[in-house]
Design a protein that fits this description.
Elements (H helix, E strand, L loop, with lengths): L9 H15 L11 H14 L13 H14 L1 H11 L34
Helix pairs in contact: 1-4, 2-3
Length: 122
């Protein structure tokens, strides 16, 4: 398996990360189509490369499914709690901050649109 596409080994994920997810993430109904391991690898791929969700390689499954699960995990705080707990156990070292439009909204007037010119100014 390509380490660039799948940076986390399945066995390590099942031992260290999956119990953290199952402890807090319980959804009623049918099990998810994409395994948590695949979604986790896809999220790290987006974080590492900076590509848009729509440009995810097909090996991760439908981009919208990955994005929706990331959005749910992020809004509930689960994703960041998992990363924090892994860092506390010294299984992960994070030195980056990721900010995009899903986590920080800019007002539409804050985008630097040109100002209207005064018609009397010469």
């Amino acid at each position: 398996m390509d380490k660039r596409l799948f940076p986390i080994d399945k066995d390590i994920f099942k031992q260290s990360i999956e119990p953290l997810i199952h402890r807090e993430y319980r959804r009623e109904g049918r099990p998810p189509e994409l395994p948590h391991w695949l979604v986790f690898c896809a999220i790290f791929y987006v974080m590492r490369t900076g590509i848009s969700w729509r440009d995810l390689p097909p090996c991760y499954g439908p981009w919208h499914t990955v994005y929706t699960r990331f959005k749910r995990w992020s809004e509930s705080g689960l994703f960041w709690r998992v990363l924090y707990e892994l860092q506390q156990k010294k299984k992960l070292r994070m030195e980056i901050v990721w900010v995009d439009s899903t986590s920080h909204k800019v007002h539409r007037h804050g985008a630097g649109a040109p100002k209207k010119r005064d018609s009397l100014a010469g």
